[in-house]
Amino acid sequence: MLEIKNLHARIAEDETEILRGIDLTINAGEVHAIMGPNGSGKSTLSYILAGKDDYEVTEGEILFNGENLLEMEPDERAAAGLFLAFQYPIEIPGVATMEFLKTAMNAQRKARGEDTLSIPDFMKRVKEAAGHLNVSMDMLKRPLNVGFSGGEKKRAEILQMSLLEPKLCVLDETDSGLDIDALRIVSEGVNKLRGPDRAMVVITHYQRLLDHIVPDVVHVLSKGRIVKTGDKDLALELEKNGYADYIDTAA
């Protein structure tokens, strides 16, 4: 589903190189975790996948279901089935969460040549998905993420993901700012979306998220390169021993 070949990238403004040759293949149905210390390039990779223009790809390619992802605009990537859950979801004053969801869903349906949803069908889908994530109708009426707690922001974002039904879910430190109960609810929402036709990239510092969203493959990213790949036990090793050995490997 996703194939990254020799990806090099830098910050567009000052040309600081962040990614220094990423090679990564993710098949449909797989969950890959990417772990690493601060500054290793984890969030940069997620932003490049989503098409954020703060970064410039200087070498390499990214194929998404056989298409060149780097030639697609962010909205085209979303319509093709890519979803990025941000570490810090932004607030959008004046735009009700419910209206945002309806607009996003219908925009993607239009891009795919599908009919827009009727109001009853839309409401049915939202209420069902919201119930699984403890998202109340009051939250849906409020401006998107405005005044939301950290847990509410993450639940609202996983609600978006469940309604948009992407093919590739990229979760950038979804556990950031979550207490134990919120982490469980968000993880359950993510796990409901696991399936043979969908892949996931889970970016995290910590093992605790991977106790809930158990990955098929774990990668260690250090200084812009993947320096180690293993199964879920690699995350346990990192929790026990830290990243020091891999930072030395990347030097």
UniProtKB/TrEMBL annotation:
CDD domains, alphabetized: ABC_FeS_Assembly
Keyword Nucleotide-binding on entry: yes
Molecular functions (GO terms): ATP binding; ATP hydrolysis activity
Domain ABC transporter: 2-248
Entry keyword set: ATP-binding, Nucleotide-binding
Pfam families recorded: ABC_tran
Record carries keyword Chloroplast: no
Top-level taxon in the UniProt lineage: Bacteria
Signal peptide annotation: none
PANTHER family found in the cross-reference section: ABC TRANSPORTER I FAMILY MEMBER 6, CHLOROPLASTIC
Family: Belongs to the ABC transporter superfamily. Ycf16 family.
Protein name: ATP/GTP-binding site motif A (P-loop):ABC transporter:AAA ATPase
Annotated source species: Roseibium aggregatum (strain ATCC 25650 / DSM 13394 / JCM 20685 / NBRC 16684 / NCIMB 2208 / IAM 12614 / B1)
